Structure formats: structure tokens, C-alpha cells
Write the C-alpha cells for this entry.
Amino acid sequence: RACTLSECLFFFDTFKMRTGPPGVDFYTYNAHTYKGTEPTSRVTEPGPSGATMEEMTRIISNLENENTILRSKSAAALPPPSDSVTKKKAFGKSNQQVKDLHRQIRDLEDYITELEAKKSGVDADLLKDEKNRSRDLAGRLEQLEIENERLRRENADLAEDKEKLQDENTSLRSTLVAEADDLRRELQATKDLLADSEQHLTSTKEKLVESETDRDKLRRDLKEAEDRIVEQNTTINNQKETQKQSDHRAQTAEKELEAVHKWNDDRQKCKCLKKKDAPDPWQKYMSDTYRSPGT
């Protein structure tokens, strides 16, 4: 659960109480807090500030345990994020408490470092620097682990994407192979159709040449027929003209014969008509206006 403000203040007051005023021994000032840490007869080597090594070890162990408890409470004090305004306010309050706990943890760690330095006789600054470097390395290690975990997840996602892409590639390759087979069949069918078309075109050209030959022959036959028709028409026209002339001569002969008969009849009727009246007296009977004497 989250650390309450009263608990944070209690830890803070406890930490101030344990530090004690300047110049006062830590164990002497906080002896009532650490029960059972009094010096024993089997520990004879005094530690820094009058405390034995066993007492210093117990104090450091207790402080480390308390530090661990504070860290766990600090980790549990951070609630999950929410869109609620109330939870946001609680989150801000808990965040401040966590910051206070982290500050107390750092102070405890610094104090533990000083105690360890006093216990081991090492320079406190060097030990603090080493602790800081170790803390930084731990932070970097944590970041690297987080990054490594992220990379593992990304690698898993990439492997999944790779598998999907391989499946899609296989499917696409199968589709392309099928389409290529279809295209090859269509191409072969087109080639066959083109060959048939070329053969049909060659046959059509041959038939066209034969047709042109037949047409030339028909033209010649037609020209000969036209010439024969013209010749026949000319012959017919000549025959018509000859027939017309024959008809005209026949009609003229008939008229002359009729005129001669009329003239002979008139001559029989009228003795006054002499041959001297006309070179051919019967020709006047050829006229349509001639009127026979006595009529």
C-alpha cells in the first residue's frame, strides 16, 4: 500500500532522532531504540565513536533493513495512472511522499556509508564515491535490462512480422506462379490464334489473287460483250435504216403506182389531158392536195 504522510513524518522524525545532535555518540543517543545491542563481554575491540565492531555491524544491518523497507514502501506508494481528477491529486500527493522517502533513503545510505567507512577505516568520501558509482552502474544496468527487454519484445515482434511476411511472400509467390502459368497459356493461345490468322490471311490473299484474275477475265469478257453489243446495235441500226429506206421506197412506189392508176383513170375520163402537161403527168397525183377532175 502507499505510505501515508504520518508514516513518512514518523520515518523522517525517527531518522533525525537517530542522527542525534552534533558531538553525541550515535549508539549513546539511540540506545533505547536498538534493544539488545549493548556491548557484550566477548566483544572487546572498540569501534569508532566508542562502539564495538559487533554493535556497528548490527546498527548497519538494522539501517539496511530499514532502508529496504523504505524502498519497498516507496515502490508501493506509486498508484497506477488514471484519468480521474481525484486519483490525479492522490497521485501527486503520493509522488511527493515518494520523493520524501527517496530523500530519506539517500540520507540513510549516506549515513550507512559513513558508518561503514568508520568501521573499515576507509575514507568516507572515497566510499561514498564508490557507492555512487555502484548506484549509477546499477541504474545503468537497470536501464540496459529495460532496453534489453524492449529489444527482446521488438525482436519477438520482428520475428512475428518476419513470419507473417514469409507467409505473405509464399502466398504471393504461389499467386505469381499461378498468374505466370495463366499468362503462358494465354500467350500460347494468342500465338496459335496468330498462326491461324496468318494462315487465313495467306489463304485470303491467294483467293484475292484468284479473284483479281477472274475479275480481269470478266472485264475482258465484258468488254468483248460490250463490243459485240455495240456491233450488234450498229448492225441493227443499219438494218433499221435499210428497212426504213426500203419502206420509204416501197411507200413511194405504192404512191407512184396509185398515182399512175389515178392518172390513167382521169385520162380515161378526160381526153383533154395530154402527156405534154407534165413530164411525168402522174407525179401530180403524188400530191395530197391533188383533186381529181370532176370531183
Q: What stands out?
A: The two ends are 172 Å apart (CA to CA). Residues 15-50, 289-295 have pLDDT under 50 and may be disordered.
